[in-house]
Design a protein that fits this description.
- The chain has 132 residues and is mainly beta.
- It contains three helices and eight strands.
- The chain has helices at residues 2-7, 26-30, 32-39; strands at residues 42-44, 49-51, 64-69, 73-79, 83-100, 104-115, 119-125, 128-131.
- Strands 1, 2, 3, 4, 5, 6, 7 and 8 form an eight-stranded mixed sheet that branches.
- Strand 3 and strand 4 form a beta hairpin.
- The longest helix is centred in the N-terminal third of the chain and has 8 residues, at 32-39.
Length: 132
C-alpha cells in the first residue's frame, strides 16, 4: 500500500495518470465518483428506483443542480428545498420510486415514464411532497 501511495504522490508523476490501466484513464474516470458522492445519486435498475441525497456542508448553495447518467437516459436533477425536478435530456426513464433529499420516498401506483425533453416535478406544500 505504501509503495502505491509513493508511486502516485504527485511529486514523481501526475497522480491522475495511472499507467497500469492506460494513460490518463483510470484515475480521471475515478474522479467521476465525486459527482455521484456530492449528489448522493442512487439507482436500482431492477426496482426502477432513482434518488438523490446531496451532501450538506457549511456554505452549500440552496439551489442545487446535478448531472446524472444511466444506460437508458441522462439528464439533470434540480432541487431548492421546496421543489425538485428530474429532467431527462435524452433517453427514457421509467420509475416505480423516487427518493427525494432527506429520505422522502415517493412511491408511484403505476410506473412513471419520463422521455427525452420531459421532466418529473415534485413540490412541497403544507401536506408534504406531491408530484405535478
Amino acid at each position: 500500500m505504501t509503495a502505491i501511495r509513493i508511486r502516485y504522490d504527485g511529486r514523481r508523476r501526475n497522480p491522475w495518470n495511472e499507467f497500469e490501466c492506460g494513460s490518463n484513464y483510470a484515475r480521471s474516470m475515478a474522479s467521476y465518483a465525486l459527482l455521484l458522492t456530492f449528489s448522493g445519486f442512487q439507482y436500482e435498475m431492477s426496482k426502477k428506483h432513482i434518488g438523490f441525497e446531496p451532501v450538506d456542508y457549511p456554505g452549500a448553495p440552496k439551489n442545487l443542480s446535478y448531472f446524472w447518467s444511466l444506460d437508458c437516459a441522462w439528464g439533470s436533477f434540480e432541487y431548492d428545498g421546496s421543489q425538485a425536478l428530474v429532467c431527462v435530456t435524452e433517453g427514457e426513464l421509467i420509475l416505480n420510486t423516487f427518493m427525494l433529499p432527506k429520505g422522502v420516498l415517493m412511491c408511484f401506483d403505476n410506473p412513471v415514464t419520463v422521455r427525452a425533453g420531459g421532466k418529473l416535478t415534485f413540490r412541497l406544500n403544507g401536506n408534504g411532497w406531491r408530484v405535478d
